[in-house]
Amino acid sequence: MVKVEKIGKTVVKMWTTDFDEAAREQICNLASLPFVYHHIAIMPDCHGGKGMPIGGVLPTTNVVIPNAVGVDIGCGMCAVKTNIPAASLTARVLREVIMKGIRERIPVGQSHHGESQDEKYLPTGFDIDTLAVVKSQYPFIRFQVGTLGGGNHFIELQRDEDGWLWIMIHSGSRNLGKQVGDFYNNRAKELNAMYYSSVAPELLMPFLPMDTPEFTDYWNEMTYCVAFAKCNRQLMMERIQEVIADAVPGVEFEPMINIAHNYAAIENHFGSNCIVHRKGAVRARAGEVGIIPGSQGTCSYIVEGLGNPDSFMSSSHGAGRQMSRTQAIKTLNLEDEIRKMEDKGIVHNMSSQDDLDEAAGAYKDIDIVIALEADLVTVKTKLSPVAVVKG
């Protein structure tokens, strides 16, 4: 159920009031921006980010804000259903064959491939010479494509309510997105200072007007990053499928579901075009299939959008943090979090206190999040974790 609040002259529509003080302050800051279009939408997984809260949907008129997209541009989810009953995989096959094979083929954390990957795995249809940051990073991204990354990125094997095995991946544009995001955020700062922008620098929301070359450059590089992030997930999915096919001859895979949750797009809402920034939010047009994952060791959902105009046809992108990474590492109990997963029979790689940054206890209850957005999405499939590879 949406809650409506007016902050200054700006209407904010929220699907939760359960967020930290940093998020509350950032929502107020967003409401003060002079180019907000119509209203701001806040998803039920909202928590503090950099400049703009994660789980925020910000529509603007004629400007793009790099920090309202974030630095992991194109970060998102993909999922594939198989024809394997999850129960047919023994613990030995899961741990010693499939999970071991995944870790051998997919670098995690800060690691990357030892050899440059074939150019066919990168996005096509772009003129790299016109993309300054992408061009500078091009030699490096051929080592990064098909790698998981760290933080909250993960690979999971899951079972649906009918018992079928699924593969799910959460990952983004690796270091490329950060390089693009940081470069254009800094350029926006310079331009805003040059033209005496009314947007205070401390809001961390420098912007690029649509009629500037910098807007066009950022938009093109952002678009490449979104495409690269999809390619990254696609290559990982292909290699996971190869591992499973080696372990289970005759396995079949359905087409991949793919969604992004950090990007900006030009869309028409309430009768006019605007630039919709989704930072930790998923587009949820009527009938559109989406993925809303839980936290490590909890359920995830395949959903279908309801096209709610009040959310700019968006939904949450996950459970949403209730603890910072530092707080989770300091306060959660490693043995308790491991036991929660092992009691459910989940194969995992949690082993040290540092792994608690992404433990289930650091996140909101995904079932409550889903319930709060019943007017944004409808659940198609509930997925329970079988095995987890944490980034």
Polypeptide structure, described:
- The protein is α+β, with helices and mostly antiparallel strands.
- The chain has a single domain (3-322, 363-390), classed as Alpha-Beta Complex (tRNA-splicing ligase RtcB), CATH 3.90.1860.10.
- The protein has 8 helices and 17 strands.
- It has helices at residues 21-31, 91-105, 132-144, 174-194, 213-247, 325-331, 334-343, 366-372; strands at residues 3-7, 10-14, 39-47, 54-60, 63-64, 76-85, 154-159, 164-171, 208-209, 257-260, 262-269, 272-279, 281-283, 289-292, 300-305, 314-316, 377-390.
- The strands form 4 sheets. Strands 10-6-8-7-17-15-14 form a 7-stranded antiparallel sheet. Strands 1-2-3-4-12-11 form a 6-stranded mixed sheet, with helices on both faces. Strands 5-9 form a two-stranded antiparallel sheet.
- Helix 2 packs antiparallel against helix 5 (213-247) and helix 4 (174-194) runs antiparallel to helix 5.
- The model has no long low-confidence stretch (mean pLDDT 94).
In short:
This protein has 391 residues and is α+β, with helices and mostly antiparallel strands. 30% of the residues lie in helices and 27% in strands.
Note the main attributes of this structure.
7-stranded antiparallel beta sheet, 6-stranded mixed beta sheet, 17 strands, single chain, 8 helices, alpha+beta, globular, tRNA-splicing ligase RtcB, 30% helix, 391 residues, 27% strand
Secondary-structure topology with pairs:
Layout lengths: L2 E5 L2 E5 L6 H11 L7 E9 L6 E7 L2 E2 L11 E10 L5 H15 L26 H13 L9 E6 L4 E8 L2 H21 L13 E2 L3 H35 L9 E4 L1 E8 L2 E8 L1 E3 L5 E4 L7 E6 L8 E3 L8 H7 L2 H10 L22 H7 L4 E14 L1
Parallel strand pairs: 2-3
Antiparallel strand pairs: 1-2, 3-4, 4-12, 5-9, 6-8, 6-10, 7-8, 7-17, 11-12, 13-16, 14-15, 15-17
